[in-house]
Design brief:
The chain is of the alpha/beta class. Helix content is 39%, strand content 20%. It folds into two domains: 6-268, Aldehyde Dehydrogenase, Chain A, domain 1, CATH 3.40.605.10; 273-461, Aldehyde Dehydrogenase, Chain A, domain 2 (3-Layer(aba) Sandwich).
């Protein structure tokens, strides 16, 4: 565990050399147009650097290189055991450069340095190594056939993968996709969010250092409507994987239909219910989890427990516990290791969150905690973790994904009502249930239309469990062996003997 202080991190930030160019065919390069955009830190509003603003010309070059490398077989036909060893080296390099990567993540996105260092970077490294370890343990199949026939079912890499990842967990979300995509032998073009591109740009060189051939992993920073659209419409991109908003996810499906019907796998956010029954085994633990579920990562989490459903009979007892627990989540300088709530990613997102808080007031919800922008003197984008009581599930703050630390408290009188409220959104990413009744826990979990359900905890799971959603939260799964399905084609070979 590092003993670096805030002063140490601030000095490192001053000394940090930031790479802002694209990475194509094993080399850092300016955008073909020469265009750049400014990378502004939400920590204090400082300019971190100029970032290459890639467009269709860069996408074409990256796709050409990715395809040529894939067709060469240098990576796609490499023995699984060798790909495994390379992926484990790649993961090791992330750990070796953990402090640098954590600093880039915090400066770029505003999250607390302790989260970057002890959650994001280790999680990213584990995603790479776990997927690498798995690749020589996934077996193909022999079909049940007559004695004079042989039916083989084999997996092949899909080809060129476009990966568009979000700004809230830039490194970890990238590696959730890079792990299985690279391990199965594909070439990948990674498009990080223009709000947080720095760690993606940095790890591209680490991949080559680990032994992944040049051209296998290319990184194109830029905007969604330019380089993202170009990748989504490109006829030589075989698969597109995306984490982000439902609005953009729907647009990517359209682009697929307008081009080559590329497979499109989407994780598109949520409005997750956190259901606390009167018989919850530990109300204090449930309250602390509810506070963390909305304040962690500044609420910029697709699985954030943004709707707290509380059984009416315990609401007056439980809500004060949540309010008190939320007091331990205080926005502060993200470079201070003691900080547990950082800055929102940028001014635009801060204003979005503040507009939702205003909507809560307008619609008649009762503000019981937080609700304001703070630390304005720093030049950063900080908003207090916020709780609204008396929320109807029809309110805007209960229906739309805010992606900020704003919690809506909704009461219910029965398990049936809780399930109805919980399922009454367009989303279905995650949910939690707190009860001491094992039958109630199972029956409620079964009834919830969500890809992940946690019982007597919030945000459980690891790399062995699939992650993804129902309804407009998307399709396909990250993590677990199920993720490999997105990056492979199944081939049936039928042989007459």
């Amino acid at each position: 565990m590092t003993t670096l202080t805030r002063a140490d991190w601030e000095q490192r930030a001053r000394d940090l050399k930031i790479e802002g160019r694209a990475y194509i065919n094993g080399e850092y390069t300016d955008a073909a147009s020469g265009e750049t955009f400014e990378c502004i830190s939400p920590v204090d509003g400082r300019l971190l650097g100029k970032i290459a603003s890639c467009d269709a010309a860069d996408a074409q070059r990256a796709v050409d290189n990715a395809r040529a490398t894939f067709n060469s077989g240098a990576w796609s036909r490499l023995a699984p055991t060798k790909r495994k060893a390379t992926m484990i080296r790649f993961a090791g390099l992330l750990k070796q450069h953990a402090e640098e990567l954590a600093l880039l993540e915090t400066l770029d996105m505003g999250k607390p340095i302790s989260d970057s260092l002890y959650i994001d970077v280790p999680g990213a490294a584990q995603a790479l190594s776990w997927s690498g370890e798995a690749i020589d343990k996934i077996y193909d199949e022999v079909a049940a056939t007559p004695h004079d026939q042989l039916g083989l079912v084999t997996r092949e890499p899909v080809g060129v993968v476009g990966a568009i990842v979000p700004w809230n967990f830039p490194l970890m979300m990238a590696c959730w996709k890079l792990g299985p995509a690279l391990s199965t032998g594909n070439s990948v073009i990674l498009k990080p969010s223009e709000k947080s591109p720095l760690t993606a740009i940095r790890i591209a060189a680490l991949a080559v250092e680990a032994g992944i051939p040049k051209g296998v992993l290319n990184v194109l920073p830029g905007y969604g409507h330019t380089v993202g659209k170009a990748l989504a419409l490109h006829n030589d991109v075989d698969t597109l994987v995306f984490t982000g908003s439902t609005k953009i996810a729907k647009q990517l499906l359209i682009y697929s239909g307008e081009s080559n019907m590329k497979r499109v796998w989407l994780e598109a956010g949520g409005k997750s219910p956190n259901i606390v029954f009167a018989d919850a085994p530990d109300l204090q633990a449930a309250a602390e989890a509810a506070a963390g579920a909305i304040a962690f990562n500044q609420g910029e989490v697709c699985t954030a427990g943004s709707r707290l459903l509380v059984e009416r009979s315990i609401k007056d007892k439980f809500l004060p516990l949540v309010i008190e627990a939320l007091k331990t989540w205080k926005p502060g300088n993200p470079l201070d290791p003691a900080t547990n709530v950082g800055a929102l990613v940028d001014t635009q997102q801060m204003n979005t969150v503040l507009s939702y808080i205003e909507s809560g007031h307008t619609d008649g919800a009762k503000l019981v905690a937080g609700g304001k922008r703070i630390l304005q003197e720093t030049g950063g984008t900080y908003v207090e973790p916020t709780i609204f009581d008396g929320v109807s599930n029809a309110m805007k703050i209960a229906q739309e994904e805010i992606f900020g630390p704003v919690l809506s408290v909704i009461t219910f009188d029965s398990a049936e009502e809780a399930i109805q409220i919980a399922n009454d959104t367009p989303y279905g990413l995650a949910a939690a249930v707190w009860t001491a009744d094992i039958s109630k826990a199972h029956l409620t979990a079964k009834a919830l239309r969500a890809g992940s359900v946690w019982v007597n905890q919030y945000d459980g799971g690891d790399m062995t469990a699939p992650f993804g959603g129902f309804k407009q939260s998307g399709n396909g799964r990250d993590k677990s062996l199920h993720a490999f399905d997105k990056y492979t084609e199944l081939k049936a070979t039928w042989i007459k003997l």
